[in-house]
User: Fold this.
Amino acid sequence: MNKNKFIASIAFLLMSFFVFGQPAIPDKRTIETKIADLLAQMPATNQAYLNTLMTAMADFGEDGLVQMAGMLTPSGKGNDTGVRFAMGGFSKFVTAAGRENNRLLCQRAWCRALEAAEDPEIKAFLIALIQQVGNEDAVPFLATYLVSDQLSDPAAKALATINTPEAGNALLQSLDKAQGTERISVVEALGDMGFSSALASITPLCSSPDINLKKVALYALAKIGSPQSAKIMYNAAKESGFTFEPATATASYVLWINRVATVDKSLAGKHSTGLIKTCSAENQTQTRSAALSILVLTAGEKATPYLYSAFKSDNRTYWMAALNLSKQLQGGKQTQGWIKQGGKMTGQAKADVITMLGDRGDSAAFPFVRQTLSDKEEVVRLAAIESVVKLGQAEALPDLLIALKKGSMAEVSAIKTQLLSFNGESMIPAIAAAIPEMPVGARIALIEVLASKRSGQYLDLVYREAASADAGVRLAALKALSSLVSEKDLDELYSLLPHAKSQDEIVAVQSALIVALQCLPEEKQAPAVIPVFKSNKGAERKAFYGVFAGIGSTETLKAVVDDFNTSDADTKQAAIESLAQWTKPNAIRELYQIGIKPENAAYREPAFNGGIDLITQSGYTDDQKLLLLRKFMDLAVNSKEKGRILRETGTCTTYTALKFAAGFLDDPELKQVAAGATGAIALSDKSLYGADIREILEKTLNILQGPESEYQKEAIRKHLASMPEGAGFVPLFNGKDMAGWKGLVENPIVRSAMKPEALAKAQVKADEVMRSGWKVENGILVFTGNGENLCTTKTYGDFEMIVDFKITEKGDAGIYLRGSPQVQIWDTSRRDAGAQVGSGGLYNNQVYERNPLLVADNPIGEWNTFRIIMLGERVTVWLNGILVVDNIIMENYWDRKIPIFPDEQIELQAHGTWVGYRDIYIREIPRPEPYRISEQERTEGYEVLFDGISMHQFTGNTKDYVVEDGCIAIYPKYGGKGNLYTKAEYGDFSFRFEFQLTPGANNGIGIRTPVEGDAAYVGMEIQVLDNTADMYRNLKEYQYHGSVYGVIPAKREFLKRVGEWNEEEIIAQGNHIRVILNGTTIVDGDIAEASRNGTADHNQHPGLKNTTGHIGFLGHGSEVKFRNLRIKDLTAKNRIALIVKAGKEDLRSLP
Amino acid sequence: MKKVNSRRRFLKNTALATAVFTIIPRHVLGGSGFLAPSDMLTKAIIGVGGMGRNHIPYGDSKLLAICDVDRNHLAEVLQMTGSDVKAYADYREVLQRPDIDIIHIATPPHWHGIMSAEAARAGKDVWCEKPMTRTIGEGMEVVKAVQQHGRMFRLNTWFRFDDVFYGFGTTVKPIKKLVDSKLLGWPLKVTINRSTGFDWKFYWTGKTEQVPMPVPPELDYNMWLGPAPVKPYNPHRVHGTFRGYWDYDGGGLGDMGQHYLDPVQYLLDKDHTSPVSIDIDAPQQHPDAAGTWRRIELTYADGCKIILDGENSDSEAPFIEGPLGKLYPGFRSDIPNLEKRLASFPDPQPQLTSFPDSVKTRHKFALNEQNGFRSCTLVNLSIIAIRLGRSLKFDPDKLAFIDDEGANRLIHQPMRAPWTI
Assistant:
């Protein structure tokens, strides 16, 4: 379960328990308290919780709800957000099916609240809620406001929504009293309802001089749709010229005809035909179309003559409206009619009929359409091509091939489109057979179809066409090859390459070669091509560069680079073009090397662009991409190129990328693109925070421009508002001097024993040594190779650190964490030293992993980026964005018996070779206070076994058992193996701890157990289990929580709810085992007794005889947390020591 | 690096389009070739505060008029366009101009329905911003007005026919071909998330607490509100941030939802229907201000599902999953040799993707009132479920929720007088 979800569900459990709890516990809270408790929970985080809260709200009763509504405050005069959330939520909750009673309750309450409220905005808010929940009972309450300047419209809308006769009558009755805008609202609402009793009252308003009143009156009459309104509707529309005007009389007239059609078809028909006749002007086409559409709807087939006549008009918009409408009239007779109409027409109109016939899909039209494939007009033939396929499907293929033969360019292209929409397998043989007899254009089209269907079996045919005398056919065939070839065709393709006659043809063959080569396994690709390449000279040799770019292997890269370095300008040009199009990131560094050399100035631009292309597509980590982008900054000569780098920087979601981009916010030519990048990074990784990020984003806001920037700006503002406080990353190195750093005095253990004066003196000397070995050069912190470690003046506990470094050949360095060596840095070629494992490892570890997971180093002389997180005693390291150390415990080099120091300085190691550092940043991470034992337990003799920070007293599976929020948490997903054990052994003891279960959790406490074998048998296991999980329903009694597994069953029912913390104590004294869970003794037994006649589970438990052993956590694949582990040694020897120490008065506290 | 991409890049010799989403669409039109001046279509843009400015070059048409309720917007845009463009404060005057062919609507969504329907009734063709309409009911009216009056309509999102489809690293066409081939099987489950670098739910949430402020003199707030209920003015309710309020839009879903959902609807061949159930996971919503959400699951009658993973909780997403296989971004799939196997299947039917061509030939544009209404309905169904805080059942033919009057009251929402649709 993820943590947030988990916390939410805990909150939910607690809430339902304490607030709305179990019916058995009477809720004695006052209504004020209940409301306050509910409001504190607003808004609910999820649906289930919302329902719980709303059910509770229903229990407030009508008075309670009215009381809550009284807490609404006028807009801007106080914060009633919670109240609005609650009231809005409840109003929606009650409208679901099956909540009718609550809905009535809600309605009554809001109506009373409406009466009581004074502020118009609050009243409007309540009316809007009533609009959601109200029925006829709300009508009188709403009707009051129909004659009210500000509230008549909301009230009228609520009544229209309630839409009962009572609502209509209320509106109607207020019509006389309502004036001005009130009346307009009332009339419109009556219209929305289509309230026919209002007909007589509304009719006279249609002649109002108030255009808005006239508009809504006409609208209302239209919605009522009475035949009686015919004249008034017609006249109003006529007055408007049957076009649009603000009173929308024509629209209302059309609406009215639509409505009348449902009660009196012939009347609607009469008005429709009237309109069709009248509206012949261009600007009335839409009105005429609407009339035609209603006519089709009402008169059906009888509308056909009108459609024909519309079709014959000279207004394409209108005839197309008719043709589109004609599709609503199905049937063979209609199809035949249109065929006949089409047959009489020519040109565009005929084409449009053919298209319509295709859309109708009546195959009866197939013969007609097929015949129009050879119409004398192209526009008709083009329409026929589409329709013939729609009607005939595969049957149309022979006709299309015939049409293709003599078709124009447009027809060839249209036929090709249609052929692509065919199922390939069925048509390919026919197409292949047709190719030889086709003219050039058609032949090209068919070759392209063949290619798109990847019909490899016709490769010979394509080769033949590739030798065509026609350049177009030849190119099409060559281009088709890449869709058809495989590794078997390499020789044929090699032989084609020298014969390519144009750049396009070369590219086509190259593409085919790439495809064919890529059919081979990657390691065989270069060997298959390089010998052929080497046997060629001049232009033929250069033709291979393009192929190399496509397959991109190391060997081919070397071949092109060698040619570039050793050849004439022509070859150089071809080589750089190839490199600039390289498809694998291995060319990035080569492009840089070429571009950076002054003598290659002519090739700088393609080198730059090709390099950036490759970086963009490399799939490298953001850290690595950023390093490369920064490197390419050396090659950028103008703002356009620098801008390109900054744009790409914006896709690298790292702190360093953000800082890098921010460095350009003051550059007049680059600040827009830089701000785009800083904004994008900050919004992509919202975990970045801190004073510097805040400042950068404020600046970004001021810079971003353009209409679309509002999106990003708004998001940035929001992000700033919710960004956590705190310093975030701070620089450890200012780029100018050694501020914040000091020289090294001894190791932390020696140092801590030194007297302040001695230390101060030694420090002065050390600082002098530092200045000789460490320098700042061009903003880079450099270790010259002589001297001692460089140390931060500050000490650090938990932190995240980012640092860029580079070394020279045979280089060796490292970063000391908390004064201790080290995160390793070295030249990976130093195999003698074991450096081939790569940098980043915890070099001095002996027990835990010391080597990095992967080699992620960049070549010597290039920058690398470390991201190091140290939490407690564990360290995680990313090198160039790649995880190389995964949450590994770092050992204390200076004293291997103790865990790593809790706080110490960070040091840059001096190891005799040159090192450069830049961009050193650190973010301190607040950590929990270590668990401290209570004074009482301390005097009783308990000792801390786990303090929430260090697992130093444990051994075994430290991968799945991790320290988190002061707990030992078990995450089986981390891929560890086995159990976690105490390093020490315990015989008689009292072990106290707290634990938290997840649903279905299963773990166990091993006692007196060896670290090998199944602790339940070779030692003892005190079970840890979620007893309530359904899957454990049928366990044996000795398998439930607390049981000495298989031996002594525990009492159940004393676990807290899953997710809550439990207290447990295990006391083992000789054969006597006691387990106390949350204050209740759940096991109190003698293992010798319990196993005398064989154990309950009938298994051998040799471990019962152990007198001592480790304590272990016995994971079973589920998530469990333990904390506050402490132990007291109860062996006789220790008891005596304790008695002596504690004195007599404390003796009674000893077991 | 992925092999497929590398080869494509090489073969086509084109720079790879960056994955970063830009809201400014490419110039997607103009496929019809050279237009003689006499053929030049004319247009007006309503709403030129933000998105409307991007409409100036759309469609190779001549801009004759702009309209806005904020005088400053008009003045700013006139500076950009020159003097032959006339500025209006009332869109109805623009609709009455006989010389304008196409009305571009780039206002907040609470105006989209009325303006589209009225433009159709005025004999104009319509190019409308997404989301198509703020309510399902208004969408029904737009469909009716456009179809009854024989008009052409295009909705301004383009991923069903152009540009790389969000997060999939390819256009929709080959995906459609794959889906139609049934190589993945049926029914399909499409999971989409924030794969664009553009956070679709983080943006555009409203403020739950507002101090009423005086309306600035350049703004006609009453006209800005139009059919929406009157609420005290606060600058956060209007320009640039209006999407955070249910009265005008639907938060991030309103803004980005149709971009994401429309291509999926097309892929699943659901242009004429709607889901039968809507399930959500979201925090409780404020009655006025839109909030965020975590997950929305839309299920069609045949079992096809669209899942909006607002939390990006599924690291593999976006993907399309069927009983026989799964398709990931960059056309990766667990089906071996997918591209080769797919070759013999038919290409999807060509789409009409030039709106000027649509206007001139009177053939429906690829994304029109009909399928645009359905994809906008996906947005509106989701918004209604989130606002109500519960899962819903829907009848895609009757266009009504089943057994849920609370939800049904949100399908048609009466407008403030004197506005009607």
